[in-house]
Write a structure and sequence with these properties.
The complex is a heterodimer of chains A (340) and B (327).
Chain A lengths: L5 E2 L1 H15 L3 E5 L15 H9 E3 L4 H13 L3 E8 L7 H8 L2 H4 L9 E6 L14 H5 L5 E3 L4 H13 L4 E6 L16 E2 L13 E4 L4 E5 L2 H14 L5 E5 L2 E3 L3 H11 L2 E8 L4 H12 L9 E5 L8 H7 L3 H12 L5
Parallel strand pairs in A: 2-3, 2-4, 4-5, 5-7, 6-7, 10-11, 10-13, 13-14
Antiparallel strand pairs in A: 1-8, 6-12, 9-11
Helix pairs in contact in A: 1-7, 3-4, 8-12, 9-10
Chain B lengths: L3 H25 L25 H8 L7 E4 L4 H7 L3 H8 L23 E3 L7 H14 L5 E6 L6 H12 L4 E7 L2 E2 L2 E2 L20 E4 L4 H16 L5 E6 L19 H6 L3 H11 L5 H24 L15
Parallel strand pairs in B: 1-2, 1-3, 3-4, 4-8, 7-8
Antiparallel strand pairs in B: 5-6
The chains are: A alpha/beta (340), B alpha/beta (327).
The complex binds thiamine diphosphate (TPP).
Thiamine diphosphate sits at the interface of chains B and A.
Chain lengths: 340, 327
């Protein structure tokens, strides 16, 4: 069923949540400003009007309490969707996330479920400085027990959100502020997509080849997918045929699709908006090299934030965030080509 | 009662803070029209203005010295100004310039000025712990310096805030916790976030004195804060002060404020704390209208100069992003 509805990521998220709330009375939402405001990044817009204050709950600024309460409610059989406004705020409530949500299934030997979604805004690029611009994919992906989702567009966001709500374990749903399609923040063209009205699920752990190519594999996630696509377009004019892979989920991680692609192209660039060291970029490269270093015809390259807090001032922030120009340059270097 | 110089200092400080915020509010929209884009213009990113909350800054900081510590919130400009943060460097920082306090690395939510022991944090209530630490340092070193920690009424529900209160009281540390109760936490009204009506009552839970200042009253706050600072300096331990204050602008600039009752801001502005303060100062003959006007003119000139300085300053080189990660 094609609907020709072009919708933003924030709309896709709230639609998925609404559909699951209609289908299952155990699903409810809580977090700061999720009610009348509709979520600072629009992920809960319209929900209060339909479901009321009892199922769309504004919380105090007390993340330790309400994320902990999410764990408790989930263990009691509810399906809470809890918003941690900016991922940067995890510091005040990390125990509830990584010692409770992430581990209680294990601690019960699989006898209890923690069907909870923690959705949180990531990413910078608009000068919000070091405490409001981090991406932190790896921080959560590093911890056993958490599934980690980071969609790049509305279609994926809806399907992955539906899957997340139906998952019996805790899921970190990390959405990029700059992809939400907000009235007050620029969003790349490809982020808003056609959005089927009906409910659908997208499986976790299945990356998507968003642009097939034969010369080089560019692996990206979230906002970086858009930069990678832009780079691929620029490279096309130089006769370079890049394959772009959108990982979509960090945990589970679709290593297979990446490895198969590198086997074909022989070259690998990985891009992430998170800090460089100990992150997604090294994880992907390690996965390929572990399988067979001979797949690579040249050293792989990683593009990520160079291990500095995100600076406020625009020239510095733009410098440290990977973009299409950086990606294209990395591809050229990998191919031993001169700059265009 | 404040002395004449304290009166005039508080007045000038409040006018400076007000004019500062009103000037930013205009500058913030540059480059964001006709289409509002939070990342555009000379002042990108979130901007939280404190117009209306000036008494909280002036009424407390009038009692402080440079060696005292202030930790402020994500809405820090009024407190920074009252604590004596270098206005030019602060403004340059907010413009993301090389001559800013941190060379443009921190921006408006992360102003740090070690010269006057001022810091703030964009993470709610996370100034409370460091204020306790500054007070502990003073106690261990045997100085009579004090620390002031500002939090919002929303932040007063954070665990970190309560842990800091307990620790400060347990160790009898010279800390003054000031709750700026503007009755909003973004879109959530205090009544929907806070189980208790009057946050100052929470002081009892930590065995420290608690005070509630109604209606943004600078003079009442002056008295209570003066006593609290004196108590702290002489080993009497911490105090919790809650100030009913006003937030004239939205939570951040660009906030559609659809949650806010119509007419709320107009009603608050009708009883503006600075206008009231000025009236009292002149009526009680502490200062003349001419003296007040001179203070106001000085305040505006200082702000204008700071903005001119910041605008004229150069941006940092992009690679400077890599410096100062480690000491
Ligand atoms: C730990 C944490 N949670 C949430 C936020 C997002 N946030 C920033 S300001 C704010 C509201 C703060 O309200 P209040 O403490 O009353 O201060 P006000 O903005 O009214 O000055 C929120 C929820 C944050 N910065 N840090």
């Amino acid at each position: 069923m094609s609907s020709n509805r072009i919708m933003t990521v924030s709309r896709a998220m709230s639609e998925a949540i609404a559909q699951e709330m209609r289908a299952d009375p155990n699903v409810f939402v809580m977090g700061e400003d999720v009610g009348a405001y509709g979520g600072i990044f629009g992920a809960t817009s319209g929900l209060l009007g339909e479901f009321g204050e009892s199922r769309v709950r504004d919380t105090p600024i007390s993340e330790t309490a309400f994320i902990g309460a999410g764990v408790g409610a989930a263990m009691a059989g509810m399906r809470p969707i809890v918003e941690l406004m900016f991922v940067d705020f995890f510091g005040v409530c990390m125990d509830a996330i990584y010692n409770l949500a992430a581990k209680n299934v294990y601690f019960s030997g699989g006898n209890c479920k923690v069907p909870m979604v923690i959705m949180t805004g990531t990413g910078g690029g608009y000068s919000d400085a070091g405490q409001h611009s981090q991406t932190l994919h790896a921080t959560f992906a590093h911890l056993p027990g958490l599934k980690v989702v980071a969609p790049s567009n509305a279609y994926d966001a809806k399907g992955l959100m539906t899957t997340a709500i139906r998952d019996d374990g805790p899921v970190m749903f990390m959405f990029h502020k700059g992809l939400q399609g907000l009235a007050w923040m620029a969003s790349p063209e490809g982020a808003a997509t056609e959005l089927p009205e009906e409910s659908y699920v997208l499986p976790f752990g299945q990356a998507k080849i968003v642009r097939p190519g034969k010369d080089v594999t560019i692996v990206a996630i979230s906002m970086m997918v858009h930069h990678a696509m832009e780079a691929a377009k620029a490279l096309e004019k130089e006769g370079v045929d890049a394959e772009v892979i959108d990982l979509r989920t960090l945990v589970p991680l679709d290593r297979k699709t990446v490895i198969q692609s590198v086997k074909k192209t022989g070259r690998l660039i990985v891009v992430d908006e998170d800090y460089k060291s100990y992150g997604l970029t090294s994880e992907i490269i390690a996965s390929v090299v572990e399988e067979n270093p001979a797949y690579l015809k040249s050293p792989p390259r990683r593009l990520a934030v160079p291990d500095v807090p995100i600076p406020y001032s625009r020239p510095m922030e733009q410098y440290i965030l990977p973009d299409a120009v950086d990606i294209a340059a990395a591809v050229r270097a990998t191919l031993g080509k001169k700059a265009a | 009662m404040p002395s004449k110089s304290q009166f005039l200092w508080m007045y000038e400080t409040m006018e400076k803070a007000r004019y500062y915020e009103d000037t930013i509010a205009v500058a913030y929209m540059e480059g964001k029209q006709p289409k509002f884009d939070i990342g555009a213009g000379p002042l990108p990113g979130e901007m939280h203005l404190a117009a209306g909350q000036e008494p909280c800054a002036a009424g407390v900081c009038v009692h402080l010295r440079a060696d005292d510590t202030v930790t402020a919130t994500h809405r820090p400009h009024h407190a920074a100004i009252a604590k004596g943060v270098d206005l030019k460097k602060m403004t340059a920082e907010i413009f993301g310039k090389k001559t800013g306090l941190a060379g443009g690395r921190g921006g408006h939510m992360h102003l740090l000025d070690p010269a006057v022991n001022f810091a703030c944090s964009g993470i709610i209530a996370q100034g409370a712990g460091p204020a306790v630490g500054a007070a502990l340092a003073a106690k261990l070193r045997g100085t009579d310096a004090v620390a002031v920690s500002y939090v919002g009424d929303g932040a007063a529900n954070q665990g970190g805030f309560h842990e800091a209160l307990n620790l400060a009281s347990l160790w009898k540390l010279p800390v003054i916790f000031v709750i700026e109760d503007n009755s909003w936490g973004i879109s959530v009204p205090k009544a929907k976030s806070t189980a208790i009506k009057d946050n100052s009552l929470r002081a009892a839970g930590y065995a420290m004195p608690g005070f509630h200042i109604a209606d943004n009253d600078t003079l009442k706050l002056f008295d209570v804060a003066g006593e609290a600072v004196a108590r702290a300096r002489t080993g009497g331990g911490p105090t919790l002060i809650e100030v009913e204050t006003y937030r004239y602008y939205g939570h951040f600039q660009g906030d559609p404020e659809t949650y806010r009752p119509k007419g709320e801001v107009a009603a608050l502005k009708a009883k503006d704390p600075i206008a009231r303060f000025r009236k009292t100062m002149i009526e009680t003959k502490v200062a003349t209208a001419a003296e007040a006007d001179a203070a106001l003119a000085r305040a505006k000139a200082e702000v204008d100069e700071a903005f001119a300085f910041a605008r004229a300053a150069a941006y940092p080189a992009p690679e400077e992003a890599l410096a100062h990660v480690f000491a």
